[in-house]
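Hi U.,

Before I forget, here's the chain from the pilot set. I'm dumping it here mostly so it's searchable later in email.
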Amino acid sequence: MYMGKSRTKISNREKPFWQVSVSAMRDSLCIEEPAPCVEDAILGEKGAIVPLHSQVGPEEQDAELGINPVYVRVARREIPRYKLPAEGMLPDTALQVVRDELILDGNARLNLATFVTTWMEPQAAQLMAECFDKNMIDKDEYPQTAELERRCVNILGDLWHAPAGSTAPGCSTTGSSEACMLGGMALLWRWRQRRRAAGLDTTWPNLVMGTNVQVCWEKFCRYWQVEPRQVPMVPDRLFLRGPEAAAQCDENTIGVVAIMGSTMDGSYEPVQEINDALDELYTERKVDIPIHVDGASGGFVAPFIQPHLQWDFRVPRVASINASGHKYGLVYPGVGWVVWRDEDALPEDLVFRVNYLGGDMPTFALNFSRPGGHVAAQYYNFVRLGFDGYRRVQQSCQDVAMYLSGEVAKLGPFELLSDGSDLPVFAFRLRDDVTAYTVFDLSERLRMRGWLVPAYTFPADLTDTAVIRIVIRNGFTMDLAGLLLDDLRRQIQCLDAHSQPHAPLVPPHQRQSFAH
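Structure:
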């Protein structure tokens, strides 16, 4: 969909948050010499991991990839790394080549950085494989896949308390980031319609949010030329509250984004409190501001283990909600959802109707062709687990998170910033009197045992606060929590044994690490 060409030059404020990997493992849990750093080939000019892939230099164009002669018919063979091979190879050989390349990836089950689902039942994986060849957008050829999508939207509308009698339109997406973009576009279009109907200027839209939002909201503002009004974090307030949100709003505000599960520490933002503050603003200044709830994670958690929390369409100003099916919706990466309160919340001119695939198909998406397997897997989870099954899964995750956070608090050097009582996610920092090592040292040493635990600094105005965040997902058991605690204790003892600051395993400017 062509949205117009930006004429506004905006400085690049985004910083990549990817976990910096360590390229060499050490046998000992306590080491004095730093392990080798990641290969320079994937680093930018200043040493930071680059967010986009670029062409390799001339000196690497002819680099070859060796193949074990056990797997080929000839004694020795190499293929180019960055050019298409002149000839093909046997499928088993190609499979082994790619598998060997992927050995250096981390163990997904030990990845405590990501919110994304890393395990599904074999039956679900089989179902997805059977549907990979179905184009989700081709609803005329695959009407039953489209019907499963419709059922999922209705299930979510009911789960999120869509008003009785409302059509509550919605759709699947490739993930929560696309769903956020669609929700933001609907806010922007509605604001423009209201302003134009009143004969008012539409030049300077703004969107109010906390600095703890996922980066997709900053992308939305940049791509659609919307001013991001971000409320900074402060020591006693790590997320957006009602008074702070209302203070940033004016007649050009298209909406307020409330996060149900901050990626920084797992805490919920108080949607009802934000709604009440916006009601007061309307009473005082007649400025009518809607709310979009970014429930990327919490949209599949709160309904099951915090059912009385007022955050969804029960809150009058909530116009739309998005969620990630591939996070606590328990589906492999590739599916998100967005639902609007009613048809009025989704402007008709955002919906395109296409018929070249056969039939008249309404579509609202930034993507087009995609496999139907993820929607089928989402519906599989809904019928497989039911409400009680989802409740048991999410409650188990929260039980592990609160146990683990409590034990971490007892270890001594740490201060909890959250405890897993909202999302099954918690963050902690080192006490001010601990100066011999940093959370980055601890994160790097845990990686030597296979644990992927992110360390990162908070956004403005808490950039001097470095924390570790742990995400508990389905499949992370109390037994694994015990093993993680054992390794934490062991690494703390090793770091405490050093009388001087520890030599980092990677250069300091590469130590920022984060994962959504």
